[in-house]
Amino acid sequence: MSVNPQSYRDLLAKSDPTVFNALLGEEQRQREGIELIPSENYAFPEVLALLGSSFTNKYAEGYPGRRYYGGTEFVDIIENAGRERAKKLFRAEHANIQPLSGSPMNQAVYLQFIPPGETILAMDLSHGGHLTHGAPVSHMGKIYRFVRYKTNPKDGSIDFGALREVAKAERPKLIVCGYSSYPRDLDYSQFQAIANEVGALTMADVSHYGGFVAAGALKNPMDAGFDFLTTTTHKSMRGPRGGLIVCKAEHAKGIDASVFPGLQGGPHMNQVAATATALHLVDTEEFRLYARQVLANAKALAAELMKHNIHLVTGGTDNHLMVLDVMQSFGINGAQGEKALDHAGITTNKQVIPDDPHPPLRPSGVRMGTPAPTSRGMKEPEMRVLAGVIAAALKQHDDAAHLAKLRAETKALCARFPVPGL
Ligand SMILES: *Cc1c(COP(=O)(O)O)cnc(C)c1O
């Protein structure tokens, strides 16, 4: 970047102290606390720079070579590069990197390929499905008829027997998998086989772990013949807030028409540039090592939490996240757990567990994951320290003095691992 970012900060400090001071506060919060919300991460420094670059000034409705505006020769370069990188990483025939975020990206698939009122088969929300997989409060839940499959209560595996029965009875037009709070890798070929049997399209929403799929650390649904893979770009991929869709060549025209002009106007070209660069940085040996370390850290954290007699949903993790049943382990609800951990300097979120008897604002679980601390360079020894702090905070959840002591421990740990880009 040709402009010194420091000059923007000095400018902002003078012109808008309210926002500037909030920015300083947020930066301090990110520096001094441990971020364990599994959907959060630290964007690559290059991504932060591109988001604040002059690409934000540019309108570019359309696609490279077919724009409705002049002056697009440079934005065409970045979008073409980004599309090729996404195709390569996910071994797909087509890519669209314009979706403004994860929710519109999923809507773009549904609205183009599934007629209103038709049936979509997706996972029960309490077993890990996302809002956009047909929550009754979402518009998609009103436009389509969502039917559900679940996990096995025994071991948390997907109940493919029941899934096949529902699929044969309900004849869905689309089967959706990929989740926000499910700690296991998926056998995509089983979803695809059932879809073939009933004539449904398949969509894997790998929003949480797209970066780890791209890095080869988790299975790639496109290898199993999926029609669509959707992923956010800001979670595991450390890119800008946004979404991308890859698909089979036969769906290319439909997907592009659905994103623009079906659903969106001008793409955010600063975001498209940052996505292109994030995809470039994901396609490196360094990132592949990072992805494996995220999974190794999650395994270490899970194993250590279980040593502290904490019950984990499905009994562990294969990916980057885990769900602690704090109700069963400590007799507290997820909101109390989240608050105690917050006081200890650890950010997590309350989480419903499969068929949770408790309401969503006071559920039985707390969800945590390792993408963000791994981006700071933390490894297994730090995970063991963290597990001790987490167990102590949950056990002594109403002892303010003890939580303050734990917070100081967390802060000391954080001081050794700077936040990238801050
Ligand atoms: C995060 C997420 C989304 C939505 O992304 P937003 O950018 O928040 O709209 C969609 N699907 C899944 C599975 C997610 O985890």
Write a structural description:
- This protein is α/β, with parallel strands linked by helices.
- The chain folds into two domains: about 55-280, Aspartate Aminotransferase, domain 2; about 295-415, Aspartate Aminotransferase, domain 1.
- The protein is about 45% helix and about 15% strand.
- The chain is built from 17 helices and 14 strands.
- It has helices at about 5-15, 15-30, 45-50, 75-90, 100-115, 140-145, 160-170, 190-200, 210-215, 250-265, 270-280, 285-305, 325-330, 335-345, 370-375, 380-395, 400-415; strands spanning about 35, 60-65, 65, 95, 120-125, 145-150, 175, 200-205, 230, 245, 320-325, 345, 350, 365-370.
- It has a seven-stranded mixed sheet with strand order 4-10-9-8-7-5-6, with helices on both faces. Strands 11-14-13 form a three-stranded antiparallel sheet.
- Strand 8, helix 9 (about 210-215) and strand 9 (about 230) form a beta-alpha-beta unit.
- Helix 3 packs antiparallel against helix 11 (about 270-280), helix 5 crosses helix 10 (about 250-265) and helix 7 packs parallel to helix 8.
- The longest helix is centred in the C-terminal third of the chain and has 23 residues, at about 285-305.
- The radius of gyration is 22 Å and the shape is globular.
- Bound molecules: pyridoxal-5'-phosphate.
- Pyridoxal-5'-phosphate (PLP) binds next to helix 5.
